[in-house]
Amino acid sequence: MKVLIIGLGSIALKHIKALQELYPTVVIYALRRKGESSKEIKGVIEVFDLDEIAIDRFSFILISNPTAVHYQTIKELIRYNKPLFIEKPLFGKITEDSNRLVSEIEKQGILTYIACNLRFLECIVKIKELIVDKRINEVNVYCGSYLPDWRPNVDFRKVYSANKEMGGGVHIDLIHELDYIYWLFGEPFFTQSFFSNKSSLDITAYDYANYLWEYNDFSISVVLNYYRRDSKRTLEILTDEGTYLVDLLKNTISYNEKLIFQSNQLPLQTYTAQMQFFVEEILNKRIKFNTIVEANKVLELCLQE
């Protein structure tokens, strides 16, 4: 198997680790900009021009460069008609051009997957099974953490997350929450959202987001923030029989305050599970999963003000 990677940031390294762990004979190429300084990565061959390689021989292309250039990158790559593994979020913004690109990819039948590794967190997988046929009355989602702690020894005010002009913000950073809700419950028929940046972080990007999604029988409330010192990431589902509390940080599920599920899975292992699923199920065309059309819909819901 040969894989081409566009972008070699921290997330790309997680995907590379997963690929090499699962498929030791994989051959990985990485497209870099000329003059770009980089440290050598074991098992990764650097190229500086697509004309240097025979793209038709690659199994798929993995896009993990900055979100702001996803649109242009994808637009340039679709002529090769190769499967695309695209790191979330799909785009930094939705435009007529990006919607046309999504439609063109769908029309050409290009295989796509947008990477949202929380779909492979075992407590999320388990709760999807547990709520089948349950009468749900209410769902509450919360994800709060402290942005300055995200990248130690880096000035958090200078990174993408903190800067609105760079396309950052808690709503787009934590689109994972909206993605797994969409996966668990489907598309809402009505939505409301509210964004602000009034915390002491003093950043230009939104540091607080609040969503309300309405379904036929219940509503979902989502709260996201960048300023919570004691990190919390939970999913609460109220049914007729009782309440499920999913703790994503502990990878556990409680029902009516009694622990019913616990996993020792580490966060990094979700990347391995995701890659294995992509290669063995999606790439072999056994299933369509989080395609570019679905991810574009989630992005629309995320950005809607």
Automatic annotation (TrEMBL):
Gene3D superfamilies: Dihydrodipicolinate Reductase, domain 2, NAD(P)-binding Rossmann-like Domain. SUPFAM superfamilies: Glyceraldehyde-3-phosphate dehydrogenase-like, C-terminal domain, NAD(P)-binding Rossmann-fold domains. Residues 1-110 form the Gfo/Idh/MocA-like oxidoreductase N-terminal domain. InterPro entries: Gfo/Idh/MocA-like_OxRdtase_N (IPR000683), Gfo/Idh/MocA_Oxidoreductase (IPR052515), GFO_IDH_MocA-like_dom (IPR055170), NAD(P)-bd_dom_sf (IPR036291). Signal peptide: none annotated. It comes from the Bacteria. It holds the Pfam family GFO_IDH_MocA_C3. Residues 125-244 form the GFO/IDH/MocA-like oxidoreductase domain. This is Gfo/Idh/MocA family oxidoreductase. It comes from Capnocytophaga gingivalis. The lineage of its organism: Bacteria, Pseudomonadati, Bacteroidota, Flavobacteriia, Flavobacteriales.
